[in-house]
């Protein structure tokens, strides 16, 4: 599969990188993703506090046929982790306004979180049927496709969002992950850099770009990106594990082990960190 076909880089040849660090880097790259919590955070700017939900409930009581009010409260419920309540509100929103494409896309995020990917895709499809130019739905559906291994469909969705001039960094970040997985590290670097320019306070694109730098043998820039990722998110197991990889490459097993230990502390099930900790025993 040639991911560069049909996009703005079509005139340029994809550049294959040397193999990623056999023991861990490829796994780390695969972990650079927008997880369910990040997806929920993207629903809306509404906060999930009890006070905010109570305020939104008052609005609904005054205007029980206001689809937008249910959509906003559903977003707040989603951020609060009250997924059943969120689904009920989004159900009501689309019942009141069957053309409410944002509510379908918001409901898809909740379906994604509770593990019903089929319903999530159906809701994204419905949102795009109503509004074929809705970039958020392409990005959300593309991420579902990416995580389920439907790589070409994922690429097409991210590409479509970018062609629509999206300012959502997830489109570039996720397309970068696909380029990265194909070994097209220079294209990946461009996308991660664009994602960083759109969201300079997000750790994930720095981790992603660092992995591509490391694959290209640019250890210094990789290390700088991993350190920035840690500064932005000290609770990122991925960031600490990636930092440890550079220490390990440099032969500093003591520092590598310390960083791997921090990663495992944050996420005991993070495979690259566990493997790295085992490799650096005695360092």
From TrEMBL:
It comes from the Bacteria. TPR repeats lie at residues 67-100, 101-134, 135-168, 169-202, 203-236, 237-270. InterPro entries: TPR-like_helical_dom_sf, TPR_2, TPR_rpt, Ycf3. Residues 1-28 form the signal peptide. One of its GO terms (molecular function) is transferase activity. The keyword Transferase applies. The keyword Repeat applies. Keywords: Repeat, Signal, TPR repeat, Transferase. It holds the Pfam family TPR_2. This is GlcNAc transferase. It comes from Aquibium oceanicum. The lineage of its organism: Bacteria, Pseudomonadati, Pseudomonadota, Alphaproteobacteria, Hyphomicrobiales.
């Amino acid at each position: 599969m040639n991911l560069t076909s049909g996009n703005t880089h079509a005139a340029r040849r994809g550049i294959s990188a040397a193999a990623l660090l056999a023991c861990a880097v490829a796994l780390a790259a695969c972990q650079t993703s927008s997880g369910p919590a990040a997806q929920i955070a993207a629903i809306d700017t509404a906060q999930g506090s009890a006070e905010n939900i109570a305020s939104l409930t008052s609005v609904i009581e005054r205007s029980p046929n206001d689809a937008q009010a249910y959509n906003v409260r559903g977003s707040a419920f989603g951020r609060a982790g009250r997924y059943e309540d969120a689904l009920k509100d989004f159900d009501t929103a689309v019942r009141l306004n069957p053309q409410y494409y944002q509510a379908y896309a918001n409901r898809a995020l909740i379906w994604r979180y509770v593990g019903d990917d089929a319903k999530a895709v159906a809701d994204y499809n419905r949102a795009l049927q109503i509004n074929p130019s809705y970039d958020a739905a392409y990005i959300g559906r593309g991420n579902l496709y990416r995580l389920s291994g439907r790589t070409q469909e994922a690429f097409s969705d991210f590409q479509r969002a970018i062609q629509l001039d999206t300012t959502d960094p997830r489109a570039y970040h996720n397309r970068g992950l696909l380029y990265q997985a194909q070994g097209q590290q220079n294209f990946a670097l461009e996308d991660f850099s664009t994602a960083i320019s759109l969201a300079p306070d997000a750790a994930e694109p720095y981790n992603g770009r660092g992995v591509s730098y490391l694959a290209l043998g640019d250890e210094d820039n990789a290390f700088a990106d991993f350190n920035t990722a840690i500064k932005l998110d000290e609770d990122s197991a991925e960031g600490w594990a990636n930092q440890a990889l550079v220490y390990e490459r440099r032969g500093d097993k003591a520092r590598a082990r310390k960083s791997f230990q921090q990663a495992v502390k944050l996420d005991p099930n993070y495979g690259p960190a566990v493997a790295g900790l085992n490799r650096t025993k005695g360092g």
